[in-house]
Amino acid sequence: MVDKEKVEQAVRLLLEGIGEDVKREGLAETPERIAKMYCEICGGMDDDAGEYLKKTFEVTDSGIVVEKDIFFYSLCEHHMLPFFGKVHIAYIPNGRVAGLSKLARTVEVYARRLQLQERMTAQIADALMEHLAPLGVMVMVEAEHMCMTMRGIKKPGSRTSTIAVRGVFDSDRGLQGQVFQMIRE
Ligand code: ZN
Fold first, then answer.
1. Is 147 assigned a catalytic role?
2. Residue 126: phi, psi to the nearest 5?
3. Cα of 151 to ligand 1 centre, how many Å?
4. How far is the CA of 147 from the centre of ligand 1 (A)?
5. Model pLDDT, residue 62
6. DSSP three-state, residue 56
7. Catalytic residue status for 79
8. Could you report the per-residue pLDDT of 61-76, keeping only the tens digit for each?
9. Residue 89: beta bridge partners?
10. For 148-160, what is each residue's pLDDT tens digit?
11. How many whole angstroms from 117 Cα to the centroid of ligand 1?
12. 42 is catalytic
């Protein structure tokens, strides 16, 4: 749960720290505004993927299910700057599938908090394994990190890719290749 009062105090200190006049008109409501914003962009901490994934539908004989290009915004925990991009999810159901919007909800749960791209990728895969109990899961994330593009090495447009494989995808290069192809289509 975001403690708005603490965030407001911290933003005031931060503004003073960078040499700003916290009393000037344009900044008067900034601490409050940022506190509210954090409730939204870090709201995933109070959310539970299990809530979204508990409603499933029965399927018989399903192949690979792919949901690609799920857009997300997150915050890197090293700089508290945004990183954003796309998540692709593939899984092989073991009799149960989740509603497609629920996969996007699951991404939101882990994106809306301070994150590392690698950890977010793994957490999405693990949540799907835990709650859908599929034969296997593969999650890929492609993202641009503002901490790399607006500061530091400044490489606009450069993207970082991460992948997490679980279950039958873990050792089967052929299955992994099939997913790569489905995502590129
Ligand atoms: Zn960073």
1. yes
2. -65, -35
3. 10
4. 5
5. 82
6. strand
7. yes
8. 789 999 999 999 999 9
9. 67, 139
10. 888 877 778 889 9
11. 10
12. no
